[in-house]
Please model this.
Amino acid sequence: MTRKEKERLSNRLVLNFGVLLAAGLILLYVNSALRSGGRSIAYWVILIAGILGAVGAAVLFFWGRLKKPAIKNYSAVGLGLFIGCAMLYVSKLGWIPGYTHVRAVIAVYIAMAAYFIVMAIITGIMLRKPLIKTESEKITHTAKSKKKKRK
Model:
């Protein structure tokens, strides 16, 4: 693994933490909206956000697959938005007994924490791989060592 790959992995972990932190703050507002009297409006917003998240995830995934491979990684944000909104919206439908809007919010927080912990473990394992120097780094290193030997 090269230095750039290690840096990219650690940056991805930091970016995921930032996205999850922002999502957690937004979920606080969603929780207060679900606990207040405007529950029907909150569920409409959750439904629309979930649909937009699913469509956005599909568009980013296929666009990244066809044209820009780097964009494909960002489809996970839309997928996470869709899954979180689905977990919240199921509480309105009443399909699961005892699954209230409060428990739905807690379940989404737990899912977010589990995702980050698993992502951190996987990234930590990948970062432990030994560092491999690229050809340009090898050439630079050998040139510097030759200069030191001459002096």
Q: What stands out?
A: Helices lie at 3-35, 39-66, 75-93, 101-127, 135-150. Residues 3-35 form the longest helix (33 residues). The CA atoms of residues 6 and 128 lie 9 Å apart.
